[in-house]
Amino acid sequence: MINKQMNNWKKIWNNRNVSELLEKNKGGHDDLLSELIKINGFDGGSGKSGITIEAWMNYISYIKNNLDIKDNDTLFEVGCGCGAVLYPFYITGHKVGGIDYSDKLIQQAEAIMPDAGLLYGEASEINDIKYDFVISNSIFFYFSNYDYSSIVINKMFEKARKGIAVLDVPDLRLKEQCENERRQQVDNYNEKYMGLDHLYYPKKWFLDFAEEKNCTVFTITQQNITGYGYNKYRFNCFIQK
Questions:
Q1: 103-112 and 29-39 helices cross at what angle (nearest 10)?
Q2: ∠ at Cα 102 (94, 165), nearest 5°?
């Protein structure tokens, strides 16, 4: 299932390194989380960092509330990167796991969360070990087509006991506006992002999936991370089993 576009993105991910502070774990939780947010790509996209620790923790609370995650629930993330989403759950006692296509990011996540269930592999290679909730964040737009996306979301659904969330999804209705803004923000955009296209989704794609699975508790919300420049172009999907 590996394709050229995913390999192109992998080169980008593998160039993201933890700082000496992170590797030696000298700082507290906030220092670590701040570093993880940047490594996972939430640095504003154009190099402008606008997402604070407070904004990120509000986002984590938003995820927790929309899925109704309890204190003893387990959480698995598809495309977990180095663990910016998982880490806040990990330090509050949740059992967490994840999979990512970048072996380098997985190694960094393992250094921070040594007893987490972390795997190196494609999103479509999710195993069948059950977790209460399975989520993905800023991952589905890396996929090359809807067929691959369908494989992944079905495996997420099968793996989850209680529910899934697909977060930070580019809205197909706003593709032209979003691409224009990205070009304005990034110098030499066409050169830098050649072969690194984003996949945009109609909300109906997720509505049809929920209907197919006979899920009556289904929510689509606008992305709302304070300081994140792509909020108006992205949405989030929460599906309870």
A1: 170
A2: 45
The CATH number linked to 131 is: 3.40.50.150
How crowded is residue 5: how many other Cβ atoms within 10 Å of its Cβ? 17
Reduced to 3 states (helix: H, G, I; strand: E, B; else coil), residue 34 is: helix
- pLDDT band at residue 44 under the 50/70/90 scheme: very low
Contact 100, 106 (CB under 8 A): yes
Q: What angle do CA 53, 74, 238 make, to 5 degrees?
A: 70
117-120/75-78 β-pairing = unpaired
* Total residue count of the chain as it appears in this document: 241
pLDDT category of residue 17 using cuts at 50, 70 and 90: low
> Containing domain of residue 191, as a range?
4-240
Whether residue 36 contacts residue 222, with contact meaning beta carbons closer than 8 Å, is answered with no
Residue 160: which of 195, 118, 129, 121 has the closest Cα?
129
- Per-residue pLDDT at 48: 44
Gap between the Cα atoms of 174 and 200, Å rounded: 9
Q: Which two tokens stand for residue 160?
A: 């989850």
Token pair of 26 as six digits: 């000298």
Instruction: Please count the structural domains in the chain.
Output: 1
Tokens of 57: 């923790």
What is d(CA 65, CA 83) in angstroms, rounded to the nearest whole number? 20
6-21 burial, b for 16+ CB within 10 Å, e for fewer?
Answer: beebbeebeebebeee
Q: Which helix (H) or strand (E) holds 239?
A: strand 234-240
Q: What's the rounded Cα separation, in Å, for the pair 159 and 38?
A: 29
